[in-house]
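hey so u asked for the seq, here:
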Amino acid sequence: MDSDTFLATDPRPALAQALDTTGAVLAAVTPADLDAPTPCTTMNVRELVDHLLMAGSRIASAARGDELSAWAITGPDLPFEAWGDAWQTVADAARAEWAADDERLDRPTQLPWATVAGRQAAAVYANELLVHAWDLAAAIDARPEWDDDAIEVASASIHLELPDADRGPMWAAMAEQMPPGVPWEDPFANAVEVADQASAIERLVAWNGRDPHWTRP
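ran it, structure tokens below
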């Protein structure tokens, strides 16, 4: 999907599919998985689910145009038994807020790192959900069904955000602009090269800096 096509696309079906896929993977987690490592190397399964609940709540915040000061910055730290209901609440709110007003797709939308059109914001969150759903699926050896249409929208959005495979110069320039003493950590690794026959989800996670062949140790 080229950028012109993407910018004329309604990303809400892709976002809804990403919410569903994430929920399906989350439902497959067992108590034995909680301390397992994930491809998102700073988080184990328990921490990744907590992050997903936080990130999921931000999808509705973005749609409403909430001030950034009102956005969740940490996960809810819920017990395992509460995850399913909590995710359903997050997913329902995200769908409802983005469905409430078509004009939100073209409204400038403040994200923590930039102001973008609403459709780009929704698609960026579809990308985040799909990549973290893949992280979680890889960690617990799950095999969810991946929706290629949702992946296409997510891929178009992340290519707009990260047009180059080598992100080093971009991160270095951003790090130099940070105030003295403020820590910096590159938010994405460089893209990982994939084979010509790689699947759509493998290509997506590779562009997000993941090794699509990661397996649980």
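The chain has a mean pLDDT of 93. The beta strands are 108-110, 115-117.
lmk if thats what u needed
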